[in-house]
Amino acid sequence: MILAAGRGERMRPLTDTIPKPLLPLAGRPLIEYHLRALAAAGVREVVINHAHLGHRLEDALGDGSRWGLAIAWSPEGEALETGGGIFRALPLLGEAPFIVVNGDVWSDFDFSGLPAEPAGLAHLVLVDNPAHHPAGDFVLADGRVREGDGPRLTFSGIGVYRPALFAGCAPGRFPLGPLLRTAMARDEVSGEHYRGRWVDVGTPERLAALEAELLR
Fold first, then answer.
1. For residue 8, is pLDDT > 70?
2. Which residue numbers delimit the Nucleotidyl transferase domain (predicted)?
3. pTM score, two decimals?
4. N or C: which end of the chain has fewer CB within 10 A?
């Protein structure tokens, strides 16, 4: 699943007329980098949620066949945040563990290395803390992700989740973080530290810097 329902407030005015995942980056839409990487890893079915200007996403990407993918769309009307968006899409995602990636990040991460069966309810990819988020999010120790003392890393927005992570949730708008933290407290979240290229494309300045790097 690619999360693509965010409004992109920090990207305004660029996102006033273009949904953030369609912002051009070195000659192709930002979301296309994910589609190509997922297809290269052997993924064949992708769910994409949307809200703001969602029709433009559907018009631009279609059924995904040009990348060897089958795209199923999960329209939300009003964005449901990360947790609510995934929960709404569960009927499209099936009963097996599934990959989720934020639509507003860029990375050269190889999705084929993710575990098909995470040891617990979730498996998170963590990265070095970027300059705009120096405090990080979680601690990674012995392959397990937790809160608490110790060097912290930043959650990349890439993970593998079991549908059971969302047991007891109700339809509506809610974040993913509290569900992950509850699972961490039960030692049900594994993780890995990815040291390759990763960028949170959250502002026009970061988008421009990444584009200049890729064009070089």
1. no
2. 1-113
3. 0.94
4. C
